[in-house]
Amino acid sequence: MSQADLVAVVNRIDSRIRSHPWMDFEIWEYVGGNLIVAGFIDTTVEPDLFIKFDGVFLLSLPAEWNTDTSKRVFQMLEGDEARQWNLRFKVEIGNTLFSFAPEHYSPDFKCVVAAKSVRMSTTLEGLKVPPLRDR
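^ that's the sequence the OP posted. Answer follows.
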């Protein structure tokens, strides 16, 4: 995925999140180096959004968090901030630092995932890749 494609995907994810009056998130699944985060408008029903991070290198986030969708929620870390994370956690080349801005934490707190790529779907099935034997 090119840098321009990655930026476009991140912007689409953030736009989808911010199209709702609020969104709560939780870790839905972490298997085989892949993370799925679920986004909810109402946590008593099925998630409204799934975000999948492929080839996860680093997770630094609570199991559940809320967001204020009147502000940017999802982005890539860049510049000095990304450099600090890269040096502190020895993030390998080829990974991108993705960040959620959680509500009810200090302003400098971020939910961070370092991964090879990211994508979203409104259904879990839209993210699943069949096992190699089934392809």
